[in-house]
Design a protein that fits this description.
Helices cover 47% and strands 15% of the residues. By secondary structure, the protein is α/β, with parallel strands linked by helices. A 5-stranded parallel beta sheet has the order 2-3-1-4-8, sandwiched between helices. It has a 3-stranded antiparallel beta sheet with strand order 6-5-7. The radius of gyration is 16 Å and the shape is globular.
C-alpha cells in the first residue's frame, strides 16, 4: 500500500507509522527522521536543516522534495511505503504528485490524525526518543519498560532539541499556516481518512486499520 500520514506536531504520526509499516512490511519514510540522521552524521544537508528545525520552521521545499524523490526511487519502495511528515506545503504535495506520476503509481490512502492543541504540548515535552534507533516514547503515556532505555535496542533515551515549549509553539503556527491546507488538497482526491488521535494508541491504530481495510492489531 502507498500511504501518507499527516497531522500536527505530536499527533502520533511516528508512533502509528512504526506499527503500521512493521505490520504491512513497507518502509517508513519520515522526513523529520531523515533530517535528524543527517544532522547526527554531520552532512552538509544536515547542517543546513538544523537551523530551520531548531527554530521550528520548515526546511526549504527544494531540499525536502529532493530527498523524498531519491528515497521513493529506491527498490524497497516498489511495493509500497508510508510517508510521515511529507508533504507539508502545497508545493510539496504537487511535487509528490509529479514524483508518483513519474513512477506510475498512486497513493491509496491519506491518514489525517486530528489532535487538539491543548494535549500536544504535554505529549511533546514528555516525549523521549532513542539515540540508537529513533523510537519514540512518552514518560507517562508510553513509558519504556526500563526508565531511560529503549525497549527495542537498549539505546539511551533523550529529548528532541525542538521539543521545547517555545519551538513547539512555532511548529504549531507553521502547521496551521502551511500544512493544514493540505487536508483540503487531499479531500479533493477523495482518499483521506479523518482519525481522532486523542485516544489510546491501540484505539487509534484500530481506527486506522478500519480505514485501510486491514487488521493491524
Ligand atoms: P517531524 O520529525 O516530522 O516532527 P513533527 O511533524 O513536528 O511531528 P512529531 O515527530 O513531533 O510528532 P509525531 O506526530 O510523529 O508524534 P509521535 O508519534 O512522536 O519534523 C521535525 C522538523 O523537521 C520540522 O519541524 C521541520 O523543521 C523539518 N521537516 C520535517 N519534514 C519536513 C517537510 N516535509 N518539509 C519541511 N521541513 C520538514 O508522538 C508524540 C508523543 O506523544 C510521543 O511521546 C508519543 O509516545 C506520544 N503519543 C503518541 N500517540 C499517543 C496517543 N495515542 N496517546 C498518548 N500519547 C501518544
Ligand atoms: Mg514524528
Ligand atoms: Zn532504540
Amino acid at each position: 500500500m502507498r500511504l501518507l500520514i499527516m497531522g500536527p506536531p505530536g499527533a502520533g504520526k511516528g508512533t502509528q507509522a512504526e506499527i503500521i509499516t512493521k505490520k504491512l512490511g513497507i518502509p517508513h519514510i519520515s522526513t523529520g527522521d531523515m533530517f535528524r540522521k543527517a544532522i547526527k552524521d554531520g552532512t552538509a544537508m544536515g547542517k543546513k536543516a538544523k537551523a530551520y528545525i531548531d527554530a521550528g520552521q520548515l526546511v526549504p521545499d527544494d531540499v525536502t522534495v529532493g530527498i523524498v524523490k531519491e528515497r521513493l526511487s529506491e527498490a524497497d519502495c516498489a511495493e509500497g511505503f508510508l510517508l510521515d511528515g511529507f508533504p507539508r506545503t502545497v508545493p510539496q504535495a504537487e511535487a509528490l504528485d509529479d514524483i508518483l506520476n513519474e513512477l506510475g503509481v498512486k497513493l491509496d490512502k491519506v491518514i489525517s490524525l486530528e489532535v487538539p492543541q491543548e494535549i500536544i504540548l504535554h505529549r511533546l515535552t514528555g516525549r523521549r526518543i532513542c539515540k540508537g534507533c529513533g523510537s519514540s516514547y512518552h514518560i507517562s503515556n508510553n513509558p519504556p519498560k526500563v526508565a531511560g532505555k529503549c525497549d527495542k535496542c537498549g539505546g539511551e533515551l533523550m529529548q528532541r532539541t525542538d521539543d521545547t515549549e517555545e519551538t513547539v509553539a512555532s511548529r504549531l503556527r507553521v502547521y496551521e499556516q502551511q500544512t493544514a491546507p493540505l487536508i483540503n488538497f487531499y479531500e479533493s482526491h477523495h482518499i483521506i481518512c479523518h482519525i481522532k488521535g486523542d485516544q489510546p494508541i491501540e484505539q487509534v491504530l484500530q481506527r486506522i486499520g478500519n480505514c485501510l481495510g486491514r487488521d493491524l492489531a
